[in-house]
Amino acid sequence: MTNNPDTLATALYATTDDLLKEHPGLAPWPPQVGIAPRLSDAELVTLAMMQAVLGFTSEAKWLRHARAHLRHLFPYLPQQPGYNKRLRKAADLMRRITRILAVSTSIWSDDVWVVDSTPVECGRSREAVKRSDLAGWAQYGYCASHSRFFWGLRLHLVCTLHGLPIAFALTGAKADERETLLDLLAAERDLLHSRPGQTLIGDKNYFGCAFEHELAEYGVKLIRPARKGERERPGAHLFKPLRQVIESINETFKGQLDLELHRGRTPGGVIARVMQRVLALTAAIWHNDATGQTVLRSLTAYDH
User: Fold this and answer.
1) Does residue 140 contact residue 173 with C-beta atoms inside 8 Å?
2) pLDDT per residue as tens digits for the range 220-254
3) What is the pLDDT, as a whole number, of residue 8?
4) Which residues contact 202 (CB under 8 A, 6 or more apart)?
5) Which domains does the chain have, with CATH numbers?
């Protein structure tokens, strides 16, 4: 099979449509009265995924492109306000589809995970910060990897070494990475029930005896570099070559999926746009895995 945007879109649409027929409760609850939408939920999920994969950060430009080039896939396309409203309502649907796709891959059961957080900038000017509907959630934070301050959120990711998202959370920029990770594991206890001895690779920010003790109670073994003044830690020889994997996954989100160019201005808008990108990466890995590709996190066949 030749992988291209059409084959990815067709595979995702068919899978999502079958899932929604089997489990209609996955979709947003429809209103009791009103006109039935002409764009189905399966088409909406597929359209949202393709927007992220093809690199359109403007919804208006994306819909113009879709009308000109994708009519064979989407006979009906809504106007930009309708698309935006449907997209925000479908954030939870995209999250559920993302998990179902991830679970169906051959790498879901990998026994090594990587964890990190990356900035999701939401504004730069002081006036934008003062007027933003994100104030109170978005915060000023510091990105050590790029030596810069930013105003916005952080995307916390637990992934396999192939970059498949296992768990994720969107928090304020100052949220403690350790507390967020523990909250993720507490919220999804089923993740570790069948994974005794799961290995987790993180950076120096994931430290602390109490923190590691809580991870051990979940059956998780933490590998991280030693902090200044600490003795050399077990597994240190594994960290340096694998640390680049973490940075590479973040770069996929930022360099190829334009994570920081999301254009969200409200909490619902930001959540939907971040979910688009997590869905896009998961769908690409899922499709590459199903078609026997060597590099699972490659988007090259789909981003043009």
Assistant:
1) yes
2) 999 888 888 888 777 667 666 777 788 899 899 99
3) 96
4) 114, 115, 116, 177, 181, 222, 223, 224
5) 110-260 (3.30.420.10)
